[in-house]
């Protein structure tokens, strides 16, 4: 975990809403790499030895196929390329699961009365998701974007937001996204 993530702008230290959406989702993301398509093949002593049953592995592959298919559908007109959902699977799995776990932890704090929302314009849940999304704000050049899409396991920033949030029922409820819209598809992907 890069120490730069503990700097203001990414981490406040006193704002659970901000910290859980950004740093919490990142910590959970990194932890979930131990349960992605590569990590699942290693045991507790880090020797390559699958520790899951065949039925669990079958279920895992079925659920991850949903993510593969979803991310293959993202098109980047500025470079004329579709994202390779197989190439970015482990990052997509960690992004989706990381945000899901961070949101669960955040909701626990809300239920315990430990989160105070100052905004009258947005709900706590909306602010959580807005904070997560703004952490990915970036301007990617066409050359960078093309290289990222063709040579990297990490998807472009906009997909890390759109793909992840569109898989969360809680996001769709918070923003009242119509069923079947881009941000509230009928079929949502969830692995962990």
TrEMBL record:
Highest taxon in the source lineage: Eukaryota
Molecular function as annotated in GO: metalloendopeptidase activity
Cellular component, GO annotation: plasma membrane
Transmembrane segments: none
UniProt GO BP: protein processing
Domain Peptidase M13 C-terminal: 2-191
A Pfam family per the record: Peptidase_M13
Family designation: Belongs to the peptidase M13 family.
Protein name, UniProt field: Peptidase M13 C-terminal domain-containing protein
Organism: Tenebrio molitor (Yellow mealworm beetle)
């Amino acid at each position: 975990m890069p120490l730069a993530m503990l700097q203001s702008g990414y981490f406040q230290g006193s704002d659970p809403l901000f910290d859980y959406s950004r740093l919490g989702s990142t910590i959970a993301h990194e932890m979930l790499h131990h349960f992605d398509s590569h990590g699942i093949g290693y045991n507790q002593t880090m020797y390559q030895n699958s520790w899951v049953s065949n039925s669990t592995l079958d279920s895992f592959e079925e659920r991850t196929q949903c993510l593969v298919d979803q991310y293959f559908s993202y098109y980047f007109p500025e470079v004329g390329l579709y994202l390779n959902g197989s190439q970015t699977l482990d990052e997509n799995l960690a992004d989706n699961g990381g945000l899901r776990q961070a949101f669960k932890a955040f909701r626990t704090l809300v239920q315990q009365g430990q989160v105070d929302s100052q905004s009258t314009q947005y709900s706590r849940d909306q602010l959580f998701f807005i904070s997560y999304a703004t952490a990915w704000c970036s301007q990617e050049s066409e050359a960078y974007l093309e290289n990222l899409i063709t040579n990297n396991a990490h998807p472009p920033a906009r997909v890390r937001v759109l793909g992840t949030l569109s898989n969360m029922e809680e996001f769709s409820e918070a923003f009242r996204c119509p069923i079947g819209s881009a941000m509230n598809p009928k079929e949502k992907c969830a692995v962990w």
